[in-house]
Protein backbone atom coordinates (compact mmCIF):
# COMPACT_ATOMS: atom_id res chain seq x y z
CA UNK A 1 0.00 0.00 0.00
CA UNK A 2 1.01 3.59 -0.70
CA UNK A 3 -0.27 7.08 -0.04
CA UNK A 4 -0.56 8.96 -3.32
CA UNK A 5 -0.47 12.74 -3.70
CA UNK A 6 -0.98 14.80 -6.86
CA UNK A 7 -0.32 18.56 -6.85
CA UNK A 8 -0.02 20.77 -9.93
CA UNK A 9 0.18 17.68 -12.13
CA UNK A 10 3.02 16.03 -10.21
CA UNK A 11 2.37 12.63 -8.60
CA UNK A 12 4.22 11.18 -5.61
CA UNK A 13 3.81 7.89 -3.73
CA UNK A 14 4.79 7.19 -0.15
CA UNK A 15 4.88 3.45 0.71
CA UNK A 16 3.37 2.21 3.95
CA UNK A 17 6.36 0.02 4.71
CA UNK A 18 8.73 3.01 4.75
CA UNK A 19 6.21 4.98 6.78
CA UNK A 20 6.19 2.19 9.38
CA UNK A 21 9.68 3.31 10.37
CA UNK A 22 9.78 7.03 9.63
CA UNK A 23 6.14 8.15 10.00
CA UNK A 24 6.63 11.70 8.63
CA UNK A 25 7.97 13.06 5.34
CA UNK A 26 8.30 16.82 4.81
CA UNK A 27 8.34 17.17 1.04
CA UNK A 28 7.60 19.47 -1.90
CA UNK A 29 5.18 18.19 -4.57
CA UNK A 30 4.40 20.20 -7.67
CA UNK A 31 6.24 23.14 -6.15
CA UNK A 32 4.07 23.08 -3.01
CA UNK A 33 5.29 22.02 0.46
CA UNK A 34 3.46 19.13 2.14
CA UNK A 35 3.75 17.09 5.33
CA UNK A 36 2.96 13.42 4.73
CA UNK A 37 2.22 11.70 8.05
CA UNK A 38 1.50 8.06 8.85
CA UNK A 39 0.66 6.37 12.14
CA UNK A 40 1.18 2.59 11.79
CA UNK A 41 -0.76 1.91 15.03
CA UNK A 42 -3.98 3.56 13.81
CA UNK A 43 -3.44 3.06 10.07
CA UNK A 44 -3.95 6.77 9.42
CA UNK A 45 -2.17 8.54 6.58
CA UNK A 46 -2.90 12.28 6.59
CA UNK A 47 -1.32 14.82 4.26
CA UNK A 48 -1.15 18.42 5.49
CA UNK A 49 -0.47 21.68 3.71
CA UNK A 50 3.15 22.56 4.42
CA UNK A 51 2.65 26.27 3.79
CA UNK A 52 1.52 28.37 6.75
CA UNK A 53 -0.94 31.24 6.42
CA UNK A 54 2.01 33.69 6.54
CA UNK A 55 3.76 31.84 3.71
CA UNK A 56 6.41 30.22 5.90
CA UNK A 57 7.22 26.51 5.76
CA UNK A 58 5.60 24.09 8.19
CA UNK A 59 7.81 21.16 9.10
CA UNK A 60 6.62 18.37 11.38
CA UNK A 61 8.54 15.81 13.40
CA UNK A 62 7.76 12.65 15.38
CA UNK A 63 7.48 13.55 19.08
CA UNK A 64 7.63 9.97 20.35
CA UNK A 65 4.36 10.56 22.19
CA UNK A 66 1.01 8.90 21.52
CA UNK A 67 -2.55 10.02 22.21
CA UNK A 68 -5.08 7.18 22.17
CA UNK A 69 -2.48 5.15 20.28
CA UNK A 70 -2.23 7.84 17.59
CA UNK A 71 0.96 9.59 16.48
CA UNK A 72 1.64 12.95 18.15
CA UNK A 73 3.63 15.30 15.91
CA UNK A 74 5.64 18.35 16.91
CA UNK A 75 6.28 21.62 15.10
CA UNK A 76 9.93 21.83 14.14
CA UNK A 77 9.57 25.61 13.85
CA UNK A 78 8.91 26.34 17.52
CA UNK A 79 9.90 22.94 19.00
CA UNK A 80 6.91 23.29 21.28
CA UNK A 81 3.54 22.85 19.58
CA UNK A 82 2.19 19.29 19.60
CA UNK A 83 -0.40 17.97 17.14
CA UNK A 84 -2.22 14.66 17.66
CA UNK A 85 -2.34 13.52 14.04
CA UNK A 86 -6.07 12.78 13.74
CA UNK A 87 -7.13 15.93 15.61
CA UNK A 88 -4.60 17.98 13.61
CA UNK A 89 -4.94 20.81 16.12
CA UNK A 90 -2.26 22.23 18.42
CA UNK A 91 -2.63 21.10 22.05
CA UNK A 92 0.15 23.24 23.52
CA UNK A 93 2.32 26.05 22.21
CA UNK A 94 0.11 27.34 19.38
CA UNK A 95 -3.03 25.95 21.05
CA UNK A 96 -5.95 25.54 18.68
CA UNK A 97 -3.88 26.13 15.55
CA UNK A 98 -5.30 23.69 13.01
CA UNK A 99 -3.38 22.02 10.21
CA UNK A 100 -4.97 22.09 6.75
CA UNK A 101 -5.76 18.62 5.44
CA UNK A 102 -5.03 17.91 1.77
CA UNK A 103 -6.45 15.13 -0.46
CA UNK A 104 -4.64 11.79 -0.47
CA UNK A 105 -5.27 8.49 -2.25
CA UNK A 106 -4.47 5.28 -0.41
CA UNK A 107 -4.15 2.28 -2.72
CA UNK A 108 -1.79 -0.46 -3.87
CA UNK A 109 1.50 0.48 -5.49
CA UNK A 110 0.53 -1.44 -8.65
CA UNK A 111 -2.73 0.53 -8.95
CA UNK A 112 -1.03 3.87 -8.32
CA UNK A 113 1.61 3.15 -10.99
CA UNK A 114 -1.09 2.33 -13.51
CA UNK A 115 -3.08 5.47 -12.72
CA UNK A 116 0.04 7.68 -12.68
CA UNK A 117 2.79 6.00 -14.73
CA UNK A 118 5.13 9.01 -14.34
CA UNK A 119 4.87 9.06 -10.54
CA UNK A 120 7.89 9.43 -8.32
CA UNK A 121 8.07 7.19 -5.25
CA UNK A 122 9.76 7.59 -1.89
CA UNK A 123 12.97 5.56 -1.88
CA UNK A 124 14.43 3.40 0.85
CA UNK A 125 17.62 5.36 0.21
CA UNK A 126 20.87 4.27 1.87
CA UNK A 127 19.08 2.52 4.74
CA UNK A 128 19.02 -1.18 5.43
CA UNK A 129 16.28 -2.43 3.08
CA UNK A 130 15.49 -5.36 5.36
CA UNK A 131 14.22 -2.88 7.97
CA UNK A 132 11.24 -2.17 5.72
CA UNK A 133 10.21 -5.74 4.98
CA UNK A 134 8.35 -6.52 8.19
CA UNK A 135 5.62 -4.62 10.00
CA UNK A 136 7.32 -3.70 13.31
CA UNK A 137 4.32 -4.50 15.56
CA UNK A 138 3.86 -8.18 14.74
CA UNK A 139 0.24 -9.35 14.44
CA UNK A 140 -1.17 -6.12 15.89
CA UNK A 141 -3.17 -5.31 12.72
CA UNK A 142 -5.00 -8.64 12.70
CA UNK A 143 -5.75 -8.99 16.43
CA UNK A 144 -8.92 -6.93 16.41
CA UNK A 145 -9.29 -6.00 20.06
CA UNK A 146 -5.61 -6.08 21.04
CA UNK A 147 -3.91 -2.77 21.78
CA UNK A 148 -0.30 -2.08 22.67
CA UNK A 149 -1.34 1.08 24.50
CA UNK A 150 -4.62 1.96 26.25
CA UNK A 151 -7.43 3.95 24.67
CA UNK A 152 -9.78 6.05 26.76
CA UNK A 153 -12.65 5.49 26.92
CA UNK A 154 -12.64 1.85 25.90
CA UNK A 155 -14.70 0.90 22.85
CA UNK A 156 -17.33 -0.71 25.08
CA UNK A 157 -17.71 2.57 27.01
CA UNK A 158 -17.44 4.80 23.97
CA UNK A 159 -21.16 5.58 23.73
CA UNK A 160 -21.31 5.24 19.95
CA UNK A 161 -23.99 2.66 18.98
CA UNK A 162 -21.60 1.08 16.45
CA UNK A 163 -18.44 1.13 18.59
CA UNK A 164 -18.23 -2.66 18.99
CA UNK A 165 -20.26 -3.57 15.90
CA UNK A 166 -17.04 -3.70 13.86
CA UNK A 167 -13.67 -5.21 14.58
CA UNK A 168 -11.35 -2.57 16.02
CA UNK A 169 -8.89 -2.89 13.13
CA UNK A 170 -11.49 -2.87 10.33
CA UNK A 171 -10.59 -0.25 7.71
CA UNK A 172 -12.90 2.70 7.19
CA UNK A 173 -12.82 5.82 5.05
CA UNK A 174 -13.58 8.69 7.40
CA UNK A 175 -15.15 11.98 6.27
CA UNK A 176 -15.48 15.02 8.52
CA UNK A 177 -17.28 18.00 6.99
CA UNK A 178 -18.58 20.95 9.03
CA UNK A 179 -18.19 18.89 12.22
CA UNK A 180 -20.33 16.02 10.87
CA UNK A 181 -18.49 12.73 10.67
CA UNK A 182 -19.34 9.66 8.62
CA UNK A 183 -17.37 6.41 8.35
CA UNK A 184 -17.52 4.14 5.30
CA UNK A 185 -16.39 0.64 6.41
CA UNK A 186 -14.56 -1.17 3.63
CA UNK A 187 -16.39 -4.32 4.69
CA UNK A 188 -19.77 -2.72 3.87
CA UNK A 189 -19.00 -1.42 0.37
CA UNK A 190 -18.75 -4.74 -1.47
CA UNK A 191 -16.30 -5.41 -4.29
CA UNK A 192 -16.86 -2.12 -6.08
CA UNK A 193 -19.15 0.83 -5.45
CA UNK A 194 -20.17 4.35 -6.43
CA UNK A 195 -21.79 5.77 -3.30
CA UNK A 196 -23.80 8.99 -3.39
CA UNK A 197 -24.12 10.57 0.06
CA UNK A 198 -24.55 13.89 1.85
CA UNK A 199 -22.20 14.77 4.73
CA UNK A 200 -22.47 18.05 6.61
CA UNK A 201 -24.85 19.31 3.93
CA UNK A 202 -22.21 18.54 1.29
CA UNK A 203 -22.95 16.17 -1.61
CA UNK A 204 -20.31 13.45 -1.78
CA UNK A 205 -19.34 10.58 -4.09
CA UNK A 206 -17.20 7.72 -2.75
CA UNK A 207 -15.59 5.60 -5.47
CA UNK A 208 -14.51 2.26 -4.00
CA UNK A 209 -12.61 -0.76 -5.32
CA UNK A 210 -11.81 -3.61 -2.93
CA UNK A 211 -9.02 -5.18 -5.02
CA UNK A 212 -7.16 -1.85 -5.14
CA UNK A 213 -7.92 -0.99 -1.48
CA UNK A 214 -9.10 2.27 -3.04
CA UNK A 215 -11.71 4.64 -1.56
CA UNK A 216 -11.75 8.19 -2.95
CA UNK A 217 -14.28 10.87 -1.90
CA UNK A 218 -15.28 13.57 -4.37
CA UNK A 219 -17.65 16.51 -4.37
CA UNK A 220 -20.71 15.83 -6.54
CA UNK A 221 -21.03 19.53 -7.41
CA UNK A 222 -19.96 20.40 -10.95
CA UNK A 223 -20.80 23.73 -12.59
CA UNK A 224 -23.44 24.42 -9.97
CA UNK A 225 -25.18 21.08 -10.49
CA UNK A 226 -25.38 18.11 -8.15
CA UNK A 227 -24.56 14.90 -9.99
CA UNK A 228 -25.53 11.34 -9.12
CA UNK A 229 -23.09 8.59 -10.06
CA UNK A 230 -23.29 4.91 -10.99
CA UNK A 231 -20.66 2.38 -11.93
CA UNK A 232 -20.12 2.25 -15.69
CA UNK A 233 -18.97 -0.52 -18.02
CA UNK A 234 -15.82 0.87 -19.61
CA UNK A 235 -13.17 -1.70 -20.48
CA UNK A 236 -10.60 0.99 -21.27
CA UNK A 237 -10.90 2.66 -17.84
CA UNK A 238 -8.94 1.21 -14.92
CA UNK A 239 -10.06 -0.05 -12.48
CA UNK A 240 -13.58 1.04 -13.53
CA UNK A 241 -15.59 3.93 -14.89
CA UNK A 242 -18.34 6.13 -13.47
CA UNK A 243 -21.30 7.72 -15.24
CA UNK A 244 -23.48 10.52 -13.94
CA UNK A 245 -27.24 10.24 -14.43
CA UNK A 246 -27.82 13.92 -15.12
CA UNK A 247 -25.59 14.35 -18.21
CA UNK A 248 -24.48 10.81 -19.09
CA UNK A 249 -20.82 11.87 -18.90
CA UNK A 250 -18.30 9.06 -18.44
CA UNK A 251 -15.70 9.67 -15.69
CA UNK A 252 -12.60 7.80 -14.56
CA UNK A 253 -11.70 7.11 -10.92
CA UNK A 254 -9.30 10.07 -10.99
CA UNK A 255 -12.38 12.28 -11.35
CA UNK A 256 -11.74 13.25 -14.97
CA UNK A 257 -14.62 13.63 -17.42
CA UNK A 258 -13.73 11.37 -20.36
CA UNK A 259 -16.61 11.84 -22.79
CA UNK A 260 -20.05 13.39 -22.78
CA UNK A 261 -21.36 16.84 -21.89
CA UNK A 262 -18.83 17.36 -19.07
CA UNK A 263 -15.78 15.90 -20.82
CA UNK A 264 -12.67 17.75 -19.69
CA UNK A 265 -14.14 18.70 -16.34
CA UNK A 266 -12.70 17.43 -13.04
CA UNK A 267 -14.36 16.33 -9.84
CA UNK A 268 -12.87 17.92 -6.73
CA UNK A 269 -11.39 15.38 -4.33
CA UNK A 270 -12.36 15.94 -0.71
CA UNK A 271 -9.60 15.92 1.93
CA UNK A 272 -10.17 12.79 4.02
CA UNK A 273 -8.31 9.68 5.16
CA UNK A 274 -8.66 6.00 5.92
CA UNK A 275 -8.32 4.66 9.44
CA UNK A 276 -8.68 1.65 11.66
CA UNK A 277 -12.23 1.75 13.02
CA UNK A 278 -11.22 2.01 16.68
CA UNK A 279 -9.18 5.15 16.02
CA UNK A 280 -11.91 6.89 14.04
CA UNK A 281 -14.65 6.20 16.60
CA UNK A 282 -12.36 7.07 19.53
CA UNK A 283 -11.42 10.48 18.14
CA UNK A 284 -14.92 11.16 16.72
CA UNK A 285 -17.34 9.30 19.06
CA UNK A 286 -20.39 10.97 17.48
CA UNK A 287 -19.61 9.52 14.06
CA UNK A 288 -22.33 7.93 12.00
CA UNK A 289 -21.69 4.87 9.82
CA UNK A 290 -22.69 4.40 6.19
**What is the strand content?**
35-45%
In whole angstroms, how far apart are the ends?
24 Å
What's the SSE pattern? Answer: EEHEEEEEEEEHEEEEEEEEEEEEEHE
What gyration radius follows from the Cα positions, in whole Å?
A: 19 Å
Give the overall shape: globular
Number of helices: 3
Q: What is this structure's SSE topology?
A:
Layout: E1 2-7, E2 10-15, H1 16-22, E3 24-29, E4 32-39, E5 44-49, E6 60-67, E7 70-75, E8 82-84, E9 101-102, E10 105-107, H2 109-115, E11 120-121, E12 171-177, E13 180-185, E14 192-199, E15 202-209, E16 214-219, E17 221-222, E18 225-226, E19 229-232, E20 241-244, E21 250-252, E22 257-259, E23 273-276, H3 277-283, E24 288-289
Parallel strand pairs: 2-11, 13-24
Antiparallel strand pairs: 1-2, 1-10, 3-4, 4-5, 5-9, 6-7, 7-8, 12-13, 12-23, 14-15, 15-16, 17-18, 19-20, 20-21, 21-22
Observed structural traits:
290 residues, mainly beta, four-stranded mixed β-sheet, four-stranded antiparallel β-sheet, 3 helices
Descriptive account of the structure:
The mean pLDDT is 95. The protein has helices at 16-22, 109-115, 277-283; strands at 2-7, 10-15, 24-29, 32-39, 44-49, 60-67, 70-75, 82-84, 101-102, 105-107, 120-121, 171-177, 180-185, 192-199, 202-209, 214-219, 221-222, 225-226, 229-232, 241-244, 250-252, 257-259, 273-276, 288-289. The chain has three helices and 24 strands. Helix content is 7%, strand content 40%. Strands 10-1-2-11 form a four-stranded mixed beta sheet. The longest helix is centred in the first third of the chain and has 7 residues, at 16-22. With 290 residues, the protein is mainly beta.
Amino acid sequence: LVFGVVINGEARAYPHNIGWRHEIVNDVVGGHPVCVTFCPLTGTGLVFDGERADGSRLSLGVSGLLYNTNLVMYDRGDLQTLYPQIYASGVNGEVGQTLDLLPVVETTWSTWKRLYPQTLVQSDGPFNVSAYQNYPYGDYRTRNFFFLFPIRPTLAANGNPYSISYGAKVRVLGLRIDSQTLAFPFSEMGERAAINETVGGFDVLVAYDADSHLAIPYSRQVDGRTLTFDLADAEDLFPFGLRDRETGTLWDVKGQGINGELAGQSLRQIPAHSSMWFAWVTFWPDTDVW
